[in-house]
Structures are given as C-alpha cells and as structure tokens.
Amino acid sequence: MDSKLFETPFGVDPDDPILELPKVSLHDHLDGGLRPQTIIDLAAEVGHELPATDAEALRRWFSESANSGDLPRYLETFDHTIAVMQTAEGLTRVAREWALDQVADGVFYAEARWAPEQHVQQGLSMDEAVEAVQRGLDEADAIAADNGRFIRTGQIITAMRHADNSLAVAELALRHRDRGVVGFDIAGAEDGFPPTDHLAAFDLLHRECFPVTIHAGEAAGVESIHAAVQICHAQRIGHGVRLIDDMQFTGDNGSGSLGRLAAWILDHQVPLELCPSSNLQTGAATSIEDHPITRFKELGYAITVNPDNRLMSATSMTREMRLLVDRAGWQQPDLEWATVNALGAAFLPHDARNRFLDDLVIPGFERLDL
Question: What 8-state DSSP symbol labels residue 359?
C-alpha cells in the first residue's frame, strides 16, 4: 500500500483555502488521472516501455505532450496509461489511488469515467475489469473512513464512439448498476462519430431508467449537443462548450440572443460538465479568461467545473477553481453555485444529494471566506 495517501494535488498551494472547499467531480477520466510513479511501477511489471522512468520527468512529458498542439502526441499519452491498466491488480491500484487523490483535493463525490473495452488486452473480461475497478474504489472509501475522511464514488462506464460495441457496453453497465456503476457515456473522436450511431444502446438505457451523459460539443459543434440531448436521452453533457455557437452577443454590454437549443438547455437546466484547462488543450476554448463557462454562469446555465484528465492537464478540482478565481473573476458564491449544480446533477439518489447538500456543501462553504 502506498503510504502517501492524501498528498496535496500537484500545482496547488497547500494553504489555498479552495483546497478545503467541498467539491463534486463529475467529469474525471480514470485513465487520465494516474500517479506518475504508479505508471512507472506498473509499466515495469508488464514490460511496457515509457518515455521517461523518473516520476517528475514522466509528469512533465505528459503535460508537455498534452499541451503540444499535436493531436497524435496528445493521444499517445493515453496509450501509456491504458497499457498499464490491463490487469486486475493494476486496475484496482489505479482506482484506489484515483479516489484517494480526490479526497486530498477536497472532493467528497466523484464519478470515475472509463472504457472497459480498452482494458481487455491481457485477457480480462469487461466484467472482470469493472469488478477490479470497483474493488479499488471500495478500498479507497474504507481507507478514507479509517483516516477520518470521506469519499463516495461511482463508475461511469464508457463506450468508444468509433467502435461498434456500445450495446454490449450498455448491457455491461446495467449488469453492474447495483454494484458501483452509476452511469453510461460515449467518448472518443466526436467528428464523424455522432451519438446517434449508438442509438440502440441509448434506447436500451432509456427504457431501463439508467443515467446517461454524453461527450458532445467539444470537437463537434451544436449539432452533437442536440443529438445527445434530444435524440439520445442524455441527462448531462460532457463538455458542451460549443453551445456558445448557438448564441449571438452584440453591443458593448454583451447583450444578445439564444438559439433554440441554447434556450432549451437553459430552460431545462441540462447540466454542462465543463473542463476549462482541458478545453484549452483541445482548442475548444482560447483562454481561461474568455472560456464560455463564465458567460454560461452569468446566464444561469447549470454549469459544473471538472478536471477531465488530471495527469495530462496537470490539474485538479482545486486548480480549476483557482484558475477561474484568479483569471476569470470568479468569487466564492460562483464556486458554490457550480458545486451545488454538480451535486444536483450527480448520478446519486435524491435523498443522498439532499443529505450531502445539507451536511457537506452548505456548511463547508460557510466555514471559509476566500
């Protein structure tokens, strides 16, 4: 067992009051949140060659590759993390540490998003992979409790949108819905692979009353958001930053009008899982200062703040919030608004959401003054 249970997230001041705020992380990929030393350890066990074998050097390589502007190099980062997540033991360790790192970041509820079909190269079945990840998450819950901390986690099972396996992955999610799996997603290249290609999976999940979030509105435009929400029954949108394209703003005061979809998303308070730093890396936004998340917040959208891939973006929930405070003018009430939205959108029972709001979120924000 790694003795470094609750390390301050990379790049975060340990005295930053934001670190102490209660947080909800809805869009956080398991294969994008590994500890560098864990990658090195697991790579040695499975014989996988890495671009660096020192933890700090490897951390820099991941960050530099993700910020390179070169898509093949960015995608290569996931080749390395997925390669070391092909055994039950590796998946369990990664999941355990993923959740413990959430605890260290002040997160009390986190959904681990990952694609089991990418983790069967060494003979695991998808069911065995899901069970291995759940063991790690359960271990982290127990470790946190033993140390006077708290974390609740759930798995979001993801199908790859360029593959033809989404129905089987949806059935996998349903098999494990009472054993840790709380939702379903599709991920991967958006352009050329619309969510409607996977309508059979989404129709099944809709009939079975199973929660769905869909990556949309990042690489692809407004049409991908429309298909996700209006055709594929998504309760949340993964990213959704391109919804800004369905809005027109004119005049010095920034007034404008909303397109039909933008208005519908606002009126129905469809949650947007926005990931500021990641959106910059993928070109979906140009800067933190001008990121659409702030305009969405001002208009009253159900925005949430998320890290996406903590290793590749060298980030965390605390860092994402700090960037918005320092560079986009956010204040504590804005962070609380986003956290309440995230809790309301969490794939949790209604009574649990209410309990966490009363016991954790409201008192947690009342205790601190940024």
Answer: I
